[in-house]
What does this fold into?
Amino acid sequence: MITNHNPIFNPYTTGCYVLSCSNQKWYVGSTTHLSRRLNEHFFGYGHGGSKTYCGWTKLHPPKHIFYIWKTQFINHQANQTHVFDRKCSMERVFTYMCFEMFGIPNVRGHAYTTVGKDYRSSDMLIKQLSEDKFISQCMIALDFIVDKGMDLEDIETIPLCEYNITGYFDQCLKHYNKFLDTQFKNISDAKDEMQ
It folds into this structure.
């Protein structure tokens, strides 16, 4: 069982996750209860004494948790916030980033979960990774502004057209780390003034 020894991590955290699986495969998911969902991937769902798994992680058992991202925008079913004509889904974003990094045949997640299907021939997916990448990038910006508390001014300086989805996320993360450093410095300065 995956347990929580980190006091900062709440097992009921809502977020997205990326699992590194056997055979150099990857699985992206989202949940409102991270510890329970991750246990299900690693150890199966306990229904009536039998264990079942999602198709991809049954075929390619998870080796370890590669990444966890806390967010309220877990998937298109869990929220009503729209970016253009699509509901904001960070599960979508992380799935697309994994497609970019590890290759389409090696990843399952979001709307692309059928085990035996070759999604490389999906015109819709190819379009979403290229022409529609701006929608995913805007979902990333929304998550950093609404969920992480960054200012629009911190995000709008990052040019969308210069990066793929993964590169844009990395740039936002760098800006977010600077934002946090500034926040912590302001708190420290305020404490010093109070003393």
